[in-house]
Amino acid sequence: MTDSVTTEVEQTVDAYLTRSFDAQRRLALVDARAWDPTFLDEVQALGWFALAVPESAGGLGMPLSAAGAAMLPLGRHLVPGPMIEQLVLPALLLRHIDEGDARRAELAGAVVALVDPEAHGSWSRDGDRVRVRDGHLSGDLTAVRFGREADLLVAVADSPDGPQVHLLGSRSAAVTVQPAASADPTASLATVTFVPQAGAPAEPVLAGRAAERFLTEMRAWARILAACELSGIATALLETTTAFVQVREQFGRPIGSFQAVKHVLADMHALACSLRNVCDSVLADAVSACPDDLSMLAAVAKAFAADAALEVCESAVQMHGGAGFTTETDLHLYYKRALALRAWYGDHEELAHRIGDALLTGSHVHESRNVS
Question: Which residues form the Acyl-CoA dehydrogenase/oxidase C-terminal domain (predicted)?
Fold first, then answer.
């Protein structure tokens, strides 16, 4: 994918959000627990969720780097909703599931939630696991993003023959979905419990090596898109804070004229720009990377993003003074979103250990539960 096409995707999404998604609309979505089917239908009609869907399935057939380019402005404008899931999961599933499988048709226009025990890495609750027992799914998982609102669940399960990927309706008899508390006002969370049934056994859409290939790619792109969203958040707070210190006065002059404030803004600028450069580089390289290299690129991007974006958020709160600690501004929404994304598919410390382990042993980046 050329840089010009990536730039065009980013600019198109940003222009629409600048025109049609203001702070009031964001707050309305937050008040609705980050869920508005009408807004999702609007985004679907714009073709954003079809960017990386194969042309044979009615999509635009772009590489997944186009989804990353879209996440940059989605993060900058802090758009609530299952954006990463909708941009990545249908596109990847349609690339991996056999074309003759009738279940591919279920993905068309569906809202998809991801039930993956690895999503929360070392932050996972003990016992968070989904297993295949006697041909049926069992177990539960907490903090599933948009599990209650989704039409379909993409469930990752352990089996005696290796990992399996299942696609099932969120309202089927084999599943119960209960709301869970969310500290992130831009995401709805749920606890998903699988109830073994006496009926027909669960049939995976992917199993064995095919499931492993899908999971490697899916988890890598989830990390990359999370890094891109965090980059957008860092950019937005840098812009907001730069504007604020130029109009907020103390001792008869803008606080941005004080050297201590300038130093903080300079550090914020360095972090935000560095993170953006990392995301641009990873998006350019990821399309042609082999699975092991893709995992490494994704881990590096997410590790840096988890740390850099959070530091920018904390500096923004500090520079806004007392206003930064209130809910009168949107700073707290950005900060809470960055905190939630920090842990999703690994925070800085966890991923740094995995990257170091891979470099020292000459192997690939392992998932958290496989690290020795």
Answer: 220-359
Residue 277 backbone class (left: φ over 0; alpha: ψ -120 to 50; beta: rest)? alpha
Per-chain mean pLDDT for the chain: 93
Residues 6+ apart with CB under 8 A from 178: 148, 190, 191, 193
Span 324-361, pLDDT tens digits: 888 888 999 999 999 999 999 999 999 999 999 999 98
Please count the other Cβ atoms lying within 10 Å of the Cβ belonging to residue 165. Answer: 22
Q: What gap in Å lies between CA 372 and CA 287, rounded to an integer?
A: 30
Using CA atoms, how far apart are residues 140 and 357, in angstroms rounded to an integer?
Answer: 30
Residue range(s) of every CATH 1.20.140.10 domain in the chain:
210-361
Residue 141 contacts residue 148 (beta carbons within 8 Å): no
Q: How far apart are CA 166 and CA 368, in angstroms?
A: 21
Q: Render 173-229 in DSSP notation, one character per residue.
A: TTEEEEEE--S-TT--EEEEEE---SSSPP--SEEHHHHHHHHHHHHHHHHHHHHHH
pLDDT of residue 178: 95
CA angle 338, 342, 343 (to 5 degrees): 135
CA-nearest of 294, 310, 322 to 348 is: 310
E strand or H helix that includes residue 153: strand 152-159
Question: How far from chain centre, in Å, is Cα 297?
Answer: 16
pLDDT at 121 over 80: no
In terms of phi and psi (left: phi > 0; alpha: psi -120 to 50; beta: otherwise), the region of 4 is alpha
Which residues, at least 6 apart from 222, have a Cβ–Cβ distance to it below 8 Å?
A: 84, 88, 114, 119, 298, 344, 345
CATH superfamily of 1-107: Acyl-CoA dehydrogenase/oxidase, N-terminal domain (1.10.540.10)
Q: What is the CATH number of domain 210-361?
A: 1.20.140.10
Let me know: does 238 contact 272? Beta carbons within 8 Å: yes
Locate CATH 2.40.110.10 in the chain.
112-206
Mean pLDDT for the stretch of residues 1-15: 87
Radius of gyration of the chain (CA): 21
